[in-house]
């Protein structure tokens, strides 16, 4: 058994996630040959390299922001700078949590139907509808690339 899979079976799941979700592991996967230390420097180094433009393209698709102009780059720089501040938080001796409600049981109430057959009344609130269904906006909006 290799060391990475033995970690899965020996350590609790939360520490396993903490290891593989740490910035050091993620950046070593994305930027294996970089010798820089902050996420901002690593992102800039990855974007500057010829093979690293996919990072910027991927971030543009996720954030729906064009990072090719000055405003977009400044927004990205501020977001990364804010994320880098998280490294300053002292988390020594703090167990990672899988959920914010990890120590509580959530009890559900009985589901008693008191009203019904109010489809028309509910659909009055819809901006758009087709037959008896709400029309939701599309979930993914692609940025149009201009060369």
TrEMBL record:
EC number(s) recorded for this UniProt protein: 6.3.5.-
Major subcellular location class: mitochondrion
The reaction(s) this protein catalyses: L-glutamyl-tRNA(Gln) + L-glutamine + ATP + H2O = L-glutaminyl-tRNA(Gln) + L-glutamate + ADP + phosphate + H(+)
InterPro entries attached to this UniProt entry: Asp/Glu-ADT_sf_sub_c (IPR036113), GatC (IPR003837)
UniProt keywords, alphabetically: ATP-binding, Ligase, Mitochondrion, Nucleotide-binding, Protein biosynthesis
GO process terms (BP): glutaminyl-tRNAGln biosynthesis via transamidation; mitochondrial translation; regulation of translational fidelity
Highest taxon above the source species: Eukaryota
GO molecular function: ATP binding; glutaminyl-tRNA synthase (glutamine-hydrolyzing) activity
UniProt keyword annotation of ATP-binding present: yes
Record's subcellular location: Mitochondrion
Assembly information from the UniProt record: Subunit of the heterotrimeric GatCAB amidotransferase (AdT) complex, composed of A (QRSL1), B (GATB) and C (GATC) subunits.
Known function: Allows the formation of correctly charged Gln-tRNA(Gln) through the transamidation of misacylated Glu-tRNA(Gln) in the mitochondria. The reaction takes place in the presence of glutamine and ATP through an activated gamma-phospho-Glu-tRNA(Gln).
Family, per entry: Belongs to the GatC family.
The protein, known as: Glutamyl-tRNA(Gln) amidotransferase subunit C, mitochondrial
Taxon lineage: Eukaryota, Metazoa, Chordata, Craniata, Vertebrata
Gene this protein is translated from: GATC
């Amino acid at each position: 058994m290799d060391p990475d899979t033995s970690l899965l079976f020996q350590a609790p799941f939360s520490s396993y996630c903490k290891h593989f979700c740490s910035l050091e592991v993620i950046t070593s996967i994305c930027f294996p040959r970089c010798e820089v230390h902050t996420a901002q420097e690593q992102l800039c180094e990855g974007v500057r390299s010829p093979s690293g433009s996919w990072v910027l393209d991927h971030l543009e698709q996720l954030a729906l922001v064009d990072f090719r102009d000055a405003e977009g780059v400044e927004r990205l720089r501020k977001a990364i700078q804010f994320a880098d501040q998280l490294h300053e938080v002292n988390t020594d001796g703090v167990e990672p949590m899988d959920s914010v409600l990890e120590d509580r049981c959530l009890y559900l109430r009985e589901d008693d139907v008191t009203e019904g057959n109010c489809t028309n009344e509910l659909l009055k609130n819809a901006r758009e509808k087709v037959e008896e269904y709400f029309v939701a906006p599309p979930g993914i909006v692609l940025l149009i690339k201009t060369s």
